[in-house]
Amino acid sequence: MSERKDVDFLLDIRESMERISDYTHGMEYDDFFQDHKTQDAVIRNVEIMGEATKAFIPWKRLAMTRDKLIHHYFGINTDIV
């Protein structure tokens, strides 16, 4: 398998952002708060973005968000997501 280039990680991030936008399009906050499937889908894509950002040194904060989401399953605050 060839080494991934920066553009590959950026494309992963863009795809995850587009998915989050698609999943939440037209939703109000209360709809999102009640829809656990959409929450899971959004959280998963934030995790993917966080993993992809680990290739970029200045983006550590998003990578840290990914780590918090992955390792605090029961402590995720949907107000922040």
From TrEMBL:
Highest taxon of source: Bacteria
Coiled coil spans: none
Keyword terms of this UniProt record: Hydrolase, Nuclease, Nucleotide-binding, Phosphoprotein, Toxin-antitoxin system
InterPro entries: HepT-like, HepT_RNase_toxin
Pfam families: HepT-like
Keyword Nuclease set for record: yes
Claim: Transcription regulation is one of the keywords in the record: no
Gene Ontology CC entries for this record: toxin-antitoxin complex
GO molecular function, one term: nucleotide binding
PANTHER family according to UniProt: RNASE MJ1380-RELATED, UPF0331 PROTEIN MJ0127
Protein name per its UniProtKB record: Uncharacterized conserved protein, contains HEPN domain
Organism per entry: Candidatus Kentrum sp. TUN
Lineage, broadest ranks: Bacteria, Pseudomonadati, Pseudomonadota, Gammaproteobacteria, Candidatus Kentrum
